[in-house]
């Protein structure tokens, strides 16, 4: 396909298209771009403007209020914790998934894909019946006689972390798995035959080859965590509040100015994280791993 | 993996697999409870909560709205998304990197920000609590996945086929319909499916822009479960899991058909 005749065809095809004076394929994007400018870019600009309507009062309130500060810190902390736990669980799972064959591989893939295709809300409801006082975990432990009172598994930070980890885990597994499938497996036995201890062969030969998948997964899970709403709202109770939930609550109380200000803070944080992340991985690939 | 310690690795993978599966599987037995409150294990079983769904106009309306909005979103996001994907694959215009950021943006910006912005703009247009407003909002959220699915197909195309068609006198539209479209069809089908699922599952933006008179299924479920677990919502969840498993198998078959076609010699 890179042969000389094809290259010649390219150079002769160009002027033919240029004669019309317009790049036809670029024009094709115009309707969609206008749609997104009007209904995605403009709404976000409006949120920015709404937050500074009547001066910088909202930002002063944000900076001075200990309540909002606490929520911002808690959001960041839960997002970081969820990302780390997801990575610790996803890496061995993806490793096994990429090394076993046949039926077991299909089973492991289906276990990841069924949740991906199930709504966050439905899975949060599943977590609700798992964690609640009369739910599966507590009732099973009580019937076994391991506990006499239900454990406080729901309406706290633990429930939020547990639920978000469960929901975001596939987004960590899939990018790591897709990189592991392309790793050159013969390099590890090569390192072993040269006398490297197994842990060293793994850490210095195998793991570096999978880093792009790890970065994609970490970036995606962290960014999705920062803006997560459903799990904190259903499983968090009064504890485990995160910023997205505060935004919804402020908007419900008709405090759109303050809701917009928190939204801008969340947007700025997300943008910074993505800008740093995009230096290491292509953002299109990061989203491609979502489904 | 020959000399790496296998046993702990497999044990961790098994536990993670259980962790992934558990929240979906626990819903199945609980959805058949005969009791008003959810308790595990239920003392007696029945299909009363399924019946409750199929006999409640409120639930059925919500499901019908979701279906209508989902199909319209799939159609609109495909109509807008396919040309964008072709532009990104073919054009060399200097603004295309910006177009790329604009298109993938809705998948990375937290939905609550899209929601609050969309609410304001739709209020200006007086489209909140309306069908067109919901379709417009869901299309914004569906476009990134649709474009990426189509782009994956478009990148595998051989441009020389189109050039040959064009050199034989076919108009650009004819070239697109007869050579490009059949080749990217599997990507378009998967894209449309993604578009539908994005809309069907969407909660956060819908919470802002729907009202009591026009609710989607996720919004209706949300209203039932926000304070306490609700047996009807659990029954609906079980049906949705069954549905998503069917969708997954469909997507798997389409993808396999696509890779089969690639392997077939020309």
Automatic annotation (TrEMBL), chain A:
Q: Please name the source species.
A: uncultured Nocardioidaceae bacterium
Name it.
Spermidine Putrescine ABC transporter permease component PotB
Q: Mind telling me which residue stretches traverse the membrane in this protein?
A: 24-45, 71-91, 103-122, 158-180, 213-235, 256-276
Q: How does it sit in the membrane?
A: Multi-pass membrane protein
Q: What compartments host this protein? A: Cell membrane
Query: Looking at the record's lineage, which domain of life comes first?
Result: Bacteria
Q: What keywords are annotated for this sequence in UniProt?
A: Cell membrane, Membrane, Transmembrane, Transmembrane helix, Transport
Its family?
Belongs to the binding-protein-dependent transport system permease family. CysTW subfamily.
**Cited InterPro entries:** MetI-like (IPR000515), MetI-like_sf (IPR035906)
* One GO term (biological process): transmembrane transport
Task: List the GO terms this entry assigns under cellular component, sorted alphabetically.
Answer: plasma membrane
ABC transmembrane type-1 domain boundaries = 72-277
